[in-house]
Amino acid sequence: MGNKSEQEELLLNHSKNSRKGGLITMPFIIVNESCEKLASYGLLPNMIIYLTTFYHMEAASASVLLALWTALSNGLGLFGAFLSDSYLGRFRAVAIGTISSLIGMCILWLTTIIPQLRPLPCGQHQHGCDGTTAVQLAILLCSFGLISIGTGFNRPCSIAFGADQLENKENPDNERLIDSYFNWYYASVGVSLVLAVTVIVYIQDHFGWRIGFAVPALLMIISVSIFLIGSPLYIKAKARGSLFTGLFQVAVAASRKRHINVQLNNNDDCYYREPESNHLEPSADFRCLNRACIIEDPHMELKPDGKVSDPWNLCSVEQVELLKCFLRVLPMWSTCLILLVAIGQTFSIFQMMTMDRHVFSLFEIPAGSFGIITLIAWTIWVALYDRILVPLLSRYTGHPTGLSPVSRMGISLILGCMATALQAITETIRRNKAIKAGFEDDPNAVLNMSWMWLVPQFALYGVAEAFNVVGQIEFIYSLFPKSMSSFASAMYTFGLAIASLISSFLVSMVDNVTSAGGNTSWLASNINRGHLDYFYWLLTFLSFINLLYFMVVYRFTEHHHDGRNSLYHEAEE
């Protein structure tokens, strides 16, 4: 009777949704996401300049604040996905996120319009620069927080919301249609990133902060308007529960049953399995978690229909194995954090401002636009690798992708070491030139040193990130079932959040230690007096130690590197 009512509900929902969704909704969703990314990424490159100039922050303090902001934005992505899947649904999550970003960017724009919302410029009082008041800092942090909430709700849910509009199992071309949607989606994201680090940064540099921050706010108005206009056309799937809840349930259930001796439970019948499951028993590793799926009292723990009475006390074998997959991935995933820390540093913009950035006599590249070099290197390398190197390498390695995911992750760490070392060498040369030219006390002076000195390190970071992102996501994907393919990108996003926290701690520690006793900090706002080169050498050392750590992890987890997890491989074939 229950199955019949469920089938009737599904048929009713299908009939309601049959006139909604489809390709007609794609422009609304893609424009919404493109405008959001164009607006939010356009704020980041020059934000450290805005904080040091108008809020009178030291370079290290501004860098820590931006790192914490980035960590919050990426970390809230997991929280937003959880709320979307469990309670809100994707439409509400995207709508809340987009509106939150709009409010945050409007508040940030108001700090450029209303003088009372930021400190007075230096030199207007005899005591020099005024500090930022608690109210002014609270308003700034409020804008950052609202933008982070918007990012956390919008980004993980927007792409899945678009896929919901195209989901139609009766269509034989549905898989190809969704794949085409993903391609167009990521293409629009790529275009947005390029425009963000070029056009938006150029506007900020040449037309000032009022217009430079007004443009992202205007883009968010367009984003909200377009998304809500398409509301009557959307399929709005209801929340059905989150994957993360199931993982927490396993941990809680295993803790509650910690008195059970796992060694004595070798009978397949004592484990709870989902209907039609191919998993007879849990795997041997992380054996303590197996307690979560052991049935102690069938009458108390199971309903008459065979379902679990309390999911926080009894879990399925499948849930246990998913948590084990997550734990198996963690060591290799953690090897990429230091690389992300190095790539995410914002101090290079101060170097660029002291160098000759002219391409032609009448055109000067904005200092915040140099991230385009990393994007170009990433794009070119991915294309070359996919079209040229993969066919050649696959003949020798026997791997269909040329190199295994773990090999690509290892190469990315080597390239990261090279990039940070090159960064340190370049900064040493730049600093020596500045001191010889008599600019030790003038950090804004432009040296007779071309911007081309910075191209190799940015290009290396681009190639390293391309190797790392694709390799890491493919590695995680190989260990999880296909139904959890989105978990791979979620893990990468979580890695960005952790890397930002590590970066904020590292910068704060280096600044405090090196400035002790009245000494000039390595990360002083006047980079000609500081020692940014020493900081880059420290990152190089940490990158090398991380490379050794990667080798150790590879050695002890080598049996997981040969492709998809055998448990799920057998179940899904």
From TrEMBL:
Keyword Transmembrane in annotation: yes
Cross-referenced CDD domains: MFS_NPF1_2
InterPro entries noted in UniProt: MFS_trans_sf, POT_fam
UniProt key word Transport: no
Pfam families registered for this protein in UniProt: PTR2 (PF00854)
Family listed: Belongs to the major facilitator superfamily. Phosphate:H(+) symporter (TC 2.A.1.9) family.
Protein name, UniProt field: LATD/NIP
